Amino acid sequence: MSSKMPSTSRSLPIALIRAREGVMAPIRDMLSDTGITEQQWRVLRVLSEHGPLDTTTLADRASLLHPSLTRIATTMRGKGLITQTRDKVDRRRQFIAITPDGQKIIDDNADQSARIVADFRRILGEDDFETLLDLLGRLDPGAQD
Amino acid sequence: MSSKMPSTSRSLPIALIRAREGVMAPIRDMLSDTGITEQQWRVLRVLSEHGPLDTTTLADRASLLHPSLTRIATTMRGKGLITQTRDKVDRRRQFIAITPDGQKIIDDNADQSARIVADFRRILGEDDFETLLDLLGRLDPGAQD
DNA sequence: GCTTTTCCCTTAACATGTTAATGATTGCGA
DNA sequence: TCGCAATCATTAACATGTTAAGGGAAAAGC
User: Does any domain span residue A20?
Assistant: First the structure.
């Protein structure tokens, strides 16, 4: 029972896990009807926002590791939510784009998604919500903004 | 490109994922030498702090889903890091305890673990660190403190 | 006491996280 | 142009996350 170890009840990693769980719960509820996962939702969001992207950029923006994205893309292609094409100039590169079916999932859930986000803003209050995003950003080593 | 959707760059779920990634990176580096995972480390931490626990309480304190804990416990039993015994009164219950080998991993890494935590406190500053923990706690639906 | 319900835990099935290795392609330098 | 390093992506292997179903034991109701 070493006194060097900080209590697990005030552990930053565990607090992050639990907060994420709390935030994702209503989003997962929303998505359970659509048959896609939280990660597939993020992929659609990024593609809808930025247009077609190469897989490296897409993985970065959706906060997915590349091997995960490879599998997720295979699944989503099978569902007809995205298309994947080789770059003719650099044949190593793959480009991924959202399909109308994929965009439909975004459109169908945009309202509820916005409502969920607004709920959390209200729970924390506008100021604390922004403070939280800033503090979290300072823990992110790859923060590019 | 629906204007209803908040930008993914200020998305709370993604910010939580990235912050967690930033926090866990040095911890994973530390653990890579020991051959155990981040989750196994959490199990050892909780057992070392609280003593033997039934699996439900252990899963809750380590923020693991029960099915995950079942598998993790099997692995850790195989490594000799924990023991698992049936409660003689209520034969449904399993009790898990840390072994000397498991405690040795805690002891061997206590200093470095404390250093990593101290680094993050320094990066954010004492006040912001506490603020962050409080804000995260308000997103946790099962906050029992 | 016997059924039914509830509880604790495990198993199963599928998706993702994580690290290392492999493929395929391009670019560069001798 | 040959060889070799660097780049982009996938595959492989193992561990965990997530949800649903199953199995055994205790508790509750009649």
Answer: no
DSSP-based three-state secondary structure for A116: helix
CATH number of the domain that residue A121 is part of: 1.10.10.10
Domain presence at residue A78: yes
Cα separation, B84 vs B74, in Å, equals 9
Q: How far is CA A43 from CA A84, B23, B100, B132, in A?
A: 13, 24, 45, 28
Residues 86-145 of A with CB under 7 A from strand C: 90-92
pLDDT digits over A37-82, tens only?
999 999 999 999 999 999 999 999 999 999 999 999 999 999 999 9
Domain count, chain A: 1
Whether B61 sits inside 8 A of A139 (CB atoms) is no
* Neighbouring residues of A42: CB distance < 8 A, sequence distance ≥ 6: A62, A63, A64, B8, B13, B14
This prediction's pTM = 0.92
What pLDDT score was predicted for residue B145?
A: 46
Residues 65-84/A with CB < 7 A to strand C: 65, 67-68, 71-72, 75
Question: For residue A122, what are the domain limits?
Answer: 36-136
Distance of alpha carbon B31 from the chain centroid: 13
Cα–Cα distance for residue pair A13/B20, rounded to 1 Å: 6
**Å: B45 CA to C3 C1':** 44
Is A63 within 7 A of strand D by CB distance? no
Nearest residue (CA) to C1' of D8: A92
